[in-house]
């Protein structure tokens, strides 16, 4: 049976989770240090999450664009779309949420007052994410992004009888513009003292970040509609994306731009330009072909990337830091600890994928076919 996996997208998933994981390793190797090199590594972890966002937008946008092109978007198809997404995202999420809650009780950690909000992905809807199961902030953003714009596209297809591609593009673009109004409100009302304040109150909040996923919708539109042009200049687009990415962060370093001094930049430019620079890499990646052990490794990491993302930080890293004074260890011991962290992450993630996630996806494909 021929796999429908796109190897280039598997490479992007593996890259994204790799950036996240290796940034977390720095908290074991250099827990108390702060310098430019460490900041870059830790920044790459945040970039990894942004890569996940635009990749999700590209994939989900592609499904919806195909439906609209075929004039095949209706309430039944939209419900099927949501059910398939929920079978993909919710089981792992609730499994790890429950494990974190049980561990908190066993260890004696205090749960957030509004822990029930995690059940509805509301824990960071328009406010800061609680200091519990902290990686869940990005999942809330994705879940609401999957609901809001797909529903809007469905409603617009009923109201406006335009060409499917045109309606998809304009609705996505207008949605991004309208979400900017919320950023304007943030800019004039936020009290930001440092990067952490901005990250907590803006970067990790649903209403301010859904547009990051919708940039992926715009990307799939251009790659689909202007396929020949994109293919012809994919190398130039790739280099342009790298240059923009490097220049964006060089500007921050050279001019010492931080959220407390340049909030306008971090509210209206930084994340938006970052997402667009990442999307410029996609056309070249889409043409990458894999074979042999290289392909197997990439596909292994890619298929387990969701489980890896969920277990590596709050479930493993934070508990290691809770029971071990990492700062007091020698570098050799820290290196072994990092090796244990990586091994445990892969081991636990593989168990979840093979014995939990994969059977659920198989059940989904049987009961809710594409």
The total count of strands amounts to: 0
What number of domains? 1
The overall pLDDT, averaged over residues, is 95
Low-confidence stretches: none
How many helices does DSSP assign? 15
Helix- and strand-based class? mainly alpha
* Major pleated sheet: none
* Shape annotation: globular
The end-to-end span amounts to 16 Å
How would you spell out the order of helices and strands? HHHHHHHHHHHHHHH
Helix content: over 70%
Percent strand: under 5%
What is the CA-atom radius of gyration, in angstroms? 21 Å
Keywords for this structure?
370 residues, mainly alpha, 15 helices, globular
Provide structural commentary.
With 370 residues, the chain is mainly α. It has one domain (7-367). 77% of the residues lie in helices and 0% in strands. The radius of gyration is 21 Å and the shape is globular.
What's the arrangement of secondary structure elements?
Blueprint: H1 7-29, H2 36-69, H3 75-107, H4 136-159, H5 164-189, H6 195-203, H7 206-225, H8 227-232, H9 234-254, H10 263-268, H11 270-279, H12 282-286, H13 292-303, H14 305-323, H15 331-367
Helix pairs in contact: 1-2, 1-13, 1-14, 1-15, 2-4, 2-5, 2-7, 2-11, 3-4, 3-14, 3-15, 4-5, 4-7, 5-7, 7-11, 9-11, 14-15
Describe this structure in a few short sentences.
The protein is mainly alpha-helical. The chain is built from 15 helices and no strands.
